[in-house]
Amino acid sequence: MFNKILIANRGEIACRVIKTARRMGIATVAVYSDADRDALHVSMADEAVHIGPPPSAQSYLDINKIVKACLDTGAQAVHPGYGFLSENAAFAERLASEGIVFIGPNVHAIQSMGDKITSKKLAHEAGVNTVPGCADIIESADAAVRVAQQIGYPVMLKASAGGGGKGMRTASNDDECREGFERATGEARTSFGDDRVFIEKFIVQPRHIEIQVVADKHGNVIHLGERECSLQRRHQKVIEEAPSPFLNDETRSAMGAQAVALARSVHYESAGTVEFIVDRDHHFYFLEMNTRLQVEHPVTEFVTGLDLVELMIRVAAGEVLPLAQSDVQLNGWAIEARVYAEDPLRGFLPSIGRLVRYLAPPASDTVRVDTGVFEGGEVSMHYDPMIAKLITFGMTRDSAIDHMREALNEFYVRGVSHNISFLSALIEHSRFRKGDISTNMIAEVYPDGFHPSDLVHDNPALLIVVAAAIHRSYMDRAAGISGQMPGYEQKADDHWVILFDGHPSLVEIRPVDGGHQVIYGSESYLVLSDWQFGQPLFRGTVNGQLCCIQVERRNLFYRLFHRGSQLDIMVLTARAAELLACMPVKEPPDMSKFLLSPMPGLLTQLKVQPGSEVRSGQDLAVVEAMKMENVLLAEQDGIVAKVLANVGDTLAVDQPILEYESAN
């Protein structure tokens, strides 16, 4: 067994590997860029080595620097995590030449399965079902159109070296195919340094279901069941679960057998994942094999009781798998939700900045949080915007969903925008509850994007009475301050006006043992809690029902979050409410003559100059953020008056890029 390993990664996966290595008594070495100098994985490791500036190509993708860090620290093996160099055959080859063990598959398997075109040919030869398509490299947009016409629309253009939803575009006609080719090759070149793409038939209403395999160096290969990964947005997984609510035993067995057969055909060793797309009739087709640990591996760990990172380390050290296929037992249900720093209400644009507050739900037998951040840390524009992976477990699917709902409700993040409200809405949706999901579900449920109207609370009275009780607590504390002038002491009144959604309502609040009695509308509510001033979570009961509500006091109003919904509530005296009604409403500034950057990122293309005529829908600029290219379009006709940013500039959210005047 190894004495010391280096983790060639960052963020939550680096922290995840360190935890297992520590439990196994193995010392760890972290690597970090300038942007990650104060990152969590750096402080968790036994040693840390600086490897360069923030851009991945100059740090986490620099093979020479990683190898040097191994040699300098005496690390005997490298765990690559996922992403970066995890599926880079040249990296594994270089490590071997230096006498360093790669904690992953052999070079042949990486090369065979890492290239999607080669892998499809090998899968076909191994008897694995494959999707109809063209496995040859597409050289140009015109060639892409010719191939797409032969296969028949809709088609999917995919980067051969791709993954994580990057370098992928769907096309339903020739124009979309041409544009998709340009975008797919551009993203592939930026993300992987390899702009090769191929085309295959796009399966309508598909499910994305993958099989976890593990193999050792002694010819033993097993599978650990499936993961349902169909809830995706722009080909990025959002929520995963194990097992799948869709598969029957026959299909599950057939998929597992084909996954094992494919792994054997390339003499696979270590953990790997064979991904399939499954149609509504349970027909399944090989998608790709990921020759690494998957982001969503914790759901498999929950239902099998196995530590996949430990298995990878033991296999790399030459040990025999400690179990056979007949020993694999799947128990219960696990669900994972990916918490990202992104704004669902602004088209899921990435968010960067400092985590002013970060309070994850406490870990338990049913809740696990894998993260690489901490309160006060930074979410960088240079890397993936993941904040954490939230995983819950239950003996039934409904139980796992209930635990997830409560855990999301307790997840408190401030300082950056996040997608917790979106995750909550998905978990609560009737289609998810029924297991009626596909890779198209999010687009079908939110065809025009995710909006505040999708977050309407089903019982706003709950939040209103809690805000009223909290306000009364503050007023009672203010009334009890010492040193008040005799005869002019402040008194907390029982009668107040609630201002919610612009509408005033009367409320009566009276202190009782352990809480408050609140009368709102025609109903009486008993609000009991041991909540203390400044606590971000209000835990208590309302008329005997347990509740956990996120609370912020923001000057004149209280901001409450519950089940993904946000309510801003003011609690005022009658006179204050009367005067507030007389206040003018401040109008927002007119920014219609500016093209604003909708996200923080790098301005990589600017397609107009002063004097250029602009038509509505025309491409104006491209902003790269989190390795994704985002095309900015004109919202109206006009003429460019000024260019306010240059290619290569790092942009802040809402920073003006150009100003234009009306063509009239």
Automatic annotation (TrEMBL):
Cofactor (UniProt): biotin
Pathways involved: Metabolic intermediate metabolism; propanoyl-CoA degradation; succinyl-CoA from propanoyl-CoA: step 1/3
Domain ATP-grasp: 120-317
Highest taxon listed in the record's lineage: Bacteria
GO biological process terms on file: lipid catabolic process
Keyword terms, alphabetized: ATP-binding, Biotin, Ligase, Lipid degradation, Lipid metabolism, Magnesium, Manganese, Metal-binding, Nucleotide-binding
Domain Lipoyl-binding: 586-661
Domain named Biotin carboxylation: residues: 1-447
EC number of this enzyme: 6.4.1.3
Entry-linked CDD domains: biotinyl_domain
Catalysis: reaction(s): propanoyl-CoA + hydrogencarbonate + ATP = (S)-methylmalonyl-CoA + ADP + phosphate + H(+)
GO MF entries: ATP binding; metal ion binding; propionyl-CoA carboxylase activity
Cross-referenced InterPro entries: ATP-grasp, BC-like_N, Biotin_BS, Biotin_carboxylase_complex, Biotin_carboxylation_dom, Biotin_COase_C, Biotin_lipoyl, CPAse_ATP-bd
Alphabetized PANTHER family for the sequence: CARBOXYLASE:PYRUVATE/ACETYL-COA/PROPIONYL-COA CARBOXYLASE, METHYLCROTONOYL-COA CARBOXYLASE SUBUNIT ALPHA, MITOCHONDRIAL-RELATED
Name this protein carries in UniProt: propionyl-CoA carboxylase
Organism: Novipirellula artificiosorum
Lineage: Bacteria, Pseudomonadati, Planctomycetota, Planctomycetia, Pirellulales
